[in-house]
TrEMBL record:
Domain of life of the source: Bacteria
4Fe-4S His(Cys)3-ligated-type domain residues: 96-135
This protein's UniProt keywords: 2Fe-2S, 4Fe-4S, Iron, Iron-sulfur, Metal-binding, Oxidoreductase, Repeat
Residue ranges constituting the 4Fe-4S Mo/W bis-MGD-type domain according to the UniProt record: 248-304
Pfam families attached to this UniProt entry: Fer2_4, Fer4_7, Molybdop_Fe4S4, Molybdopterin, Molydop_binding, NADH-G_4Fe-4S_3
Record-level GO BP terms: formate metabolic process; respiratory electron transport chain
GO cellular component, as recorded: membrane; oxidoreductase complex
Name used for this protein in its record: Formate dehydrogenase subunit alpha
All residue ranges annotated as the 2Fe-2S ferredoxin-type domain in the record: 18-96
Domain 4Fe-4S ferredoxin-type: 169-200, 212-241
Length: 959
């Protein structure tokens, strides 16, 4: 999708249904009530000069360029702040307005450097454009630099030029170019919700400031880019634009980071990416972005990226670069040998939640049609597989119920086990905006995340539960709602199985589930829990957003079902502003599940034992599909250690760093005879690989991602794959090497096959996505426009199912040796295992994983902030530096897992969810003690990793 420049209508669109007709410059125009005259004019193609106005933020009315005349009214009001009214007669171009606008522009230009030819914004400067629009040809007031760009000593003397602020790695701030339009300040407040910027000084010395004598890097700025995007001059400019120049074309694509699925314009010069700009028509992000999607794309050209296939006989050998033909032929031969020697079930594959739907579909097809088994799994196993099971049991579908727009109509929000401002920051900004408008928030988390209390947002309740007690807390909330008569009986009788509800209600009403009875277990004060339950049940539209802090537990599936129970009991399903919403971690984790990446399910969540479903694929593929579920990732590793599983094809996942109990993962990989890794970099898993197939970035391929709201978004190729092939082509070539006759020439053909075989995708095609922009599944004859809200008239399974949720304590217990509980999470600037973000300038914000520890626990152990500490569990130990903070409770410690030098998962155990084997990352009994530096295991691991990444050609060159 090549784009023409987007129109900025100056003010946001009105959502009113009532229409108003007025006359502008002799033309009769009809628009929704509440629309500004500026927007009405712009929508009709009548250009009104503007500088302070942009449709991403509310009208401000400060620049005085957009003045108009209205018949029967005195003066010249600003068109951006003047709403339409029936029968108005408006003039946007008169001799009087021309003189006023020219005078205003003279004042702006007199306070602005006239270095347009060498300015980075030349060709993309609204000040320059407006000077032309108003016909400015000369300026009566000279520019001598003696204005707001100067800084003075304390006594007011010795004026000097204020230097540019180059502290942020991605953009520069040049105060001499600032026209004090406040667009950046308003974008920071209204779009991002951070309030990091202000206008400092008075008169000619006014300028944007990121804080009290702070630079941008050390301020509260989160580098989302909203201020840069809003700036009409070169005051805030991407450093990439300064170094490369202005882009000459753009292509809309979808971000490859978190599950929000933001749409971006990749702005290009030829095949060189100049910048990523959030697309205003993106239905998931509505023109907003975060630091990762906006700026952290440099990994695509990083020097460590592998661009040539490589093979080696043993993992202790150096890698040897080979041709694609040799690499694929070698892989196919090895897989055939292993199956001949050890049996059909001795090999399998892992699909990627970072690759497209089409690529994921082909991997599971290769395994089922080529390997002839169901040994396929995906990273969702270790994150959201309990979502699939729990919501499938309660509602009949394993996905979130709402679109992101729904948050704008919510009244009470429960955020449990999620940290939206760090993990899903664009959605987090939308949530903060709704909270600032008056919605109430309940946070259920052992850690005080930013949403609990910040200068502009504060939760009504924070329930700081003890890790591992989610089920007890949610059931206690239900106890209050049921015993106090706060259920929505009408909804339950009409939409759910009443007898199952009665059984569940009797269960949760038992005294052992009361807040008072569970307080000692969960650590949540009974009064706070009762208050939260009453607020959720009586506060209006209630929505629940949850993350890995719910699913990554031994009772992850049980907690998901408990959340579903809570939503049904209060009638919060099936309309805007409510619902159960899993916040998916990776960009296509929803899609990887949709595409049949689990060993027991074919695409569309249909069990492999279903004869009719298998028949669809068998006829199309021309093979017989096994009706027995295959091995999950943990089972593959166990079988490898036992000697029966010998070969693994891994597309785009780093299981050595991301999966639990690192030593066990390493042992499983080491026991295999052919491990094939397809990725961008020699990741940690590649330390144990025998074949490396270079992957392609999202910038180098066509396809689709499906985000956390089930939105299917197009991914569009903006440059030629640097490795020679898109990932789907690599998989197809491997399939051909194994004897399959695949003939796809474009990913659109793969999507056509998905649509033909998967009911929820029946109407999806690339042509349809081009027409609609994006759609949310199910998209079929019953829902041709897609399904923004699920379960509107009834649940997919028929009647909603209430399920008893008995709390069962995890087998992971604290004790004298390991008295603390470790839980893990993410940070804003980094993503997942860090393979992408660690190879960008984002490391300036998070260059290492730190262990958060409460001051009391630190004092008991003689640990100071910044000290090296040994973190040990029953599984292993590692070292990292301490961060003393009261964000965690006593008895709880917390760390991120973005850096392989820490290898936090060497600590986590092999305990997992009872239904899905999702690992229990969030509850690990640990002890911490002072340390002098890296552990023995870390030193050994670092040495093994270094030796594993040797490449023969580079070794020869070095010699």
């Amino acid at each position: 999708m090549l784009l023409v420049p987007e129109t900025d209508f100056g003010t946001p669109a009105s959502r009113a249904e009532k229409l108003v007709t007025l006359t502008i410059d002799g033309r009769e125009i009809t628009v929704p009530e509440g629309t500004s005259i500026m927007r009405a004019s712009m929508e009709a193609g009548i250009q009104v000069p503007k500088l302070c106005a942009t449709d991403m933020v509310d009208a401000f009315g400060s620049c005085r360029l957009c003045l108009i005349e209205i018949d029967g009214r005195n003066g010249t009001p600003a068109s951006c702040t003047t709403p339409v009214a029936p029968g108005l007669v408006v003039h946007t171009q008169t001799a009087r307005l021309k003189d006023i606008r020219k005078g205003v522009m003279e004042l702006y230009i007199s306070d602005h450097p006239l270095d347009c030819l060498t300015c980075a914004a030349n060709g993309d400067c609204e000040l320059q454009d407006m000077a032309g629009a108003v016909g400015l040809r000369d300026v009566r007031y000279g520019y001598d630099g003696n204005n707001h760009v100067k800084a003075r000593d304390g006594d007011g003397t010795n004026a000097r030029w204020m230097p540019k602020d180059e502290s942020n790695p991605y953009f520069t701030y040049d105060p001499s170019k600032c026209i004090v339009c406040s667009r950046c300040v308003r974008a920071c407040e209204e779009v991002q919700g951070t309030f990091a910027l202000t206008i400092e000084g008075r008169g000619f010395e006014s300028r944007v400031s990121p804080g009290q004598h702070e630079d941008f890097l050390s301020s509260e700025c989160v580098s989302c880019g909203a201020c840069v995007q809003a700036c009409p001059t070169a005051t805030l400019t991407e450093k990439s634009v300064i170094s490369i120049g202005q882009p000459e074309h753009s292509v809309v694509t979808t971000c490859a980071y978190c599950g929000v699925g933001c749409s971006f314009k990749a702005e290009m010069r030829g095949e060189e990416l100049v910048r990523m700009v959030p697309w205003k028509d993106g239905q998931a992000n509505r023109g907003h972005s975060c630091v990762k999607g906006r700026f952290a794309y440099g990994y695509s050209t990083h020097k460590e990226r592998i661009l040539h296939p490589m093979i080696r006989e043993k993992v202790t050998d150096p890698w040897r670069e080979v041709s694609w033909e040799e690499a694929l032929a070698h892989t196919a031969a090895e897989f055939r040998r292993i199956q001949y020697q050890y049996g059909r079930e001795s090999i399998g594959g892992i699909t990627s939640s970072r690759c497209t739907n089409e690529e994921t579909y082909l991997v599971q097809k290769l395994i089922r049609a080529g390997f002839r088994n169901n040994n396929v799994d995906t990273c969702a196993r270790v994150c959201h597989s309990p979502t699939g099971y729990g919501l499938g049991q309660a509602f009949g579908t394993s996905a979130g119920t709402q679109n992101f727009d729904s948050v704008e109509q919510t009244d009470v929000v429960i955020v449990i086990g999620a940290n939206p401002t760090d993990g899903h920051p664009v959605f987090g900004s939308r949530l903060k905006k709704r909270l600032q408008q008056g919605a109430k928030l309940i946070v259920i988390d052992p850690r005080r995340i930013d949403l609990v209390r910040s200068p502009h947002v504060e939760a009504a309740f924070h329930l700081p539960l003890r890790p591992g007690t989610n089920v007890a807390v949610v059931t206690a909330l239900a106890h209050v709602i049921v015993t106090e008569g706060l259920c929505d009986e009408n909804f339950i009788r009409n939409r759910c199985d009443w007898s199952e509800f009665e059984d569940w209600a009797g269960f949760v009403s038992e005294e052992r589930h009361s807040p008072e009875a569970t307080e000692a277990l969960t650590g949540v004060p009974a009064d706070a829990l009762r208050g939260a339950a009453r607020l959720f049940a009586t506060g209006g539209n209630g929505s629940i957003y949850y993350g890995l802090g719910v699913t990554e537990h031994s009772q992850g599936s049980t907690t998901v079902m408990a959340i579903a129970n809570l939503a049904m009991a209060t009638g919060n399903i099936g309309r805007p502003g409510v619902g159960v919403n899993p916040l998916r971690g990776q960009n296509n984790v929803q899609g990887s599940c949709d595409m049949g990446s689990f060993p027991h399910e074919l695409p569309g969540y249909r069990h492999v034992s279903d004869d009719a479903t298998r028949d669809i694929f068998e006829k199309l593929w021309g093979v017989t599909i096994s009706d027995e579920p295959g091995l999950r990732i943990p089972n593959m590793l166990d079988a490898a250690v036992d000697g029966s599983f010998k070969g693994l094809y891994i597309q785009g996942e780093d299981i050595l760093q991301s999966d639990p109990d690192t030593k066990h993962v390493a042992a499983g990989l080491a026991a295999m005879e052919c491990v094939v890794v397809q990725d961008l970099f020699l990741n940690e898993t590649a330390n144990y690989a025998h074949v490396f197939l270079p992957g392609s970035t999202f910038l180098e391929k066509d396809g689709t991602f499906t985000n956390a709201e089930r939105r299917i978004n197009r991914v569009r190729k903006v440059m030629t794959p640097r490795n020679g092939y898109a990932d789907w082509e690599v998989t197809q070539n491997l399939a051909r090497a194994m004897g399959l006759s695949w003939t796809y020439t474009h990913p659109s053909q793969i999507m056509d096959e998905i649509a033909a075989t998967t009911p929820s995708f029946a109407k999806v095609s690339y042509a349809y996505l081009e027409e609609k922009g994006s759609v949310q599944w199910p998209c079929n004859e019953a829902a041709p426009e897609g399904s923004p809200i699920m379960h509107v008239d009834g649940f997919v399974r028929g009647k909603g199912k209430f399920i008893r949720t008995e709390y069962v304590a995890t087998d992971e217990k604290t004790g004298p040796r390991f008295p603390l509980l470790l839980t893990t999470g993410r940070i804003l600037s980094q993503y997942n295992v860090g393979a992408q973000t660690r190879r960008t300038e984002n490391v300036v914000w998070h260059e290492e994983d730190r262990l958060e520890i409460h001051p009391h626990d630190a004092e008991l152990r003689g640990i100071r902030d910044g000290d090296w500490v040994r973190l040990a569990s029953r599984s292993g130990d590692t070292t990292l530096r301490a961060l003393i903070t009261d964000r965690v409770a006593t008895g709880v410690v917390y760390t991120t897992f973005h850096h392989p030098t820490t290898q936090a998962n060497v600590i986590t155990t092999d305990f997992s969810d009872w239904a899905t084997n999702c690992p229990e990352y969030k509850v690990t009994a640990v002890q911490i003690s002072p340390s002098n530096g890296p552990s023995e295991w870390q030193a050994e691991y670092e040495d093994q990793a270094r030796r594993s990444r040797r490449i023969a050609a580079k070794l020869e060159a070095a010699e």
